[in-house]
């Protein structure tokens, strides 16, 4: 879960700073920006967030159709993040950046479904923070780990971007590859938790971080 949360932070950092100013997975933040763009009649704000929110939702819907395990969905996400890395390394133009934003958001929508199957928040953190602080503060540490991982992923990506663009571009894919390897059991895929209804539940796009 640490690697997936860090991957979300890295992907959002790239989406926000390189791909047009929209988040790949923070849907609530995107919706606020959408409202701002509509209220001020600024298409330059509306288009990126509309792309990101639509692609995220599509990712949730598509990943629900994948096998009810975590390895296959994570490998599908890894494929998209590899495309994202390759596109960023190629120094894309404005049009290509919008396509890559959709790819990034699609991957994060898929990762949200994986998180639901594991009963862990890896892309939307507002609820995780509220849960940690509303309960016994002495036991809040584990609940805060995904939040710290999110920040660490974003920070590492930003630091690498100042050194080598290609290195920052591959961070999300590397982290998801690590997660896929860790979540794979000797017998095959790690199944969703017993009684999980993740395949029948949307990934709470309106309740994102």
From TrEMBL:
Record bears the keyword Membrane: yes
Residues covered by region (Disordered): 186-209
Highest taxon of source: Bacteria
InterPro entries per the UniProt record, alphabetical: DUF1275
Keywords from the named record: Membrane, Transmembrane, Transmembrane helix
Coiled-coil zones: none
Annotated TM spans: 48-65, 72-90, 96-119, 166-187
Pfam family, one: DUF1275
Protein name: DUF1275 domain-containing protein
Lineage of the species this protein comes from: Bacteria, Bacillati, Actinomycetota, Actinomycetes, Micromonosporales
